Amino acid sequence: MAGHLIRRLHQISTSVFQTRMKAQGVDLTSVQFAALNAIKANPGIDQAGVAGLIAYDRATIGGVIDRLEAKKLVSRVISPRDRRARAVSLTPAGAALLERLAPVVAEMQGDILAGLSAPEAREFLRLAGKMTAQGNHLSRAPLRPKDPE
C-alpha cells in the first residue's frame, strides 16, 4: 500500500541522513537542516514563517529553533515588524555548517534514491512533488510559501 511504502521511504531517508550526519560528527536532524536552509534563504524570518516554508507544525517549530539556538547555529531577536514575533538568523557558525554539509546532503540523495536509474529518480521526484502539491491541503502542517512583500 502507498502509505506503508511512503513510511518505509521516510524511515530509510531519516536513517541515511542520521548516519551521514554522525559520520560528519554533527548532531543535526533533517528538520533542523531544513530549518537552517529556510533561515539562510530568508534571514530575519519569524518562527511561523520557518514552519510554513518547511511544512512543519507551528506548535513545535519553537523547539526546533530552541535546539538550533542552543547549538549556536541561529540567533533570535524581537522582530522589528511584530514585537510578538522573533526574527531568526543564522550565526556565522550556522552558515559555516550549512556550507560544509551541503555537498554531504547532495551526495546522500543517491543513497536515498538507491535502485533507481537517473531518469527514474527524476521521475520519482517529479511524481512525489506532484503528490505533495496536490495533497498539501490535507496536511496538518501544510507547506506555506513565503508571502511576497
TrEMBL record:
One Pfam family named in its UniProt record: MarR_2
Gene3D superfamilies attached to this UniProt entry: Winged helix-like DNA-binding domain superfamily/Winged helix DNA-binding domain
Domain HTH marR-type: 2-133
Name of the protein described by the UniProt record: MarR family transcriptional regulator
Gene Ontology BP terms: response to stress
GO molecular function: DNA-binding transcription factor activity
UniProt-listed InterPro entries: HTH_MarR-typ, MarR/SlyA-like, WH-like_DNA-bd_sf, WH_DNA-bd_sf
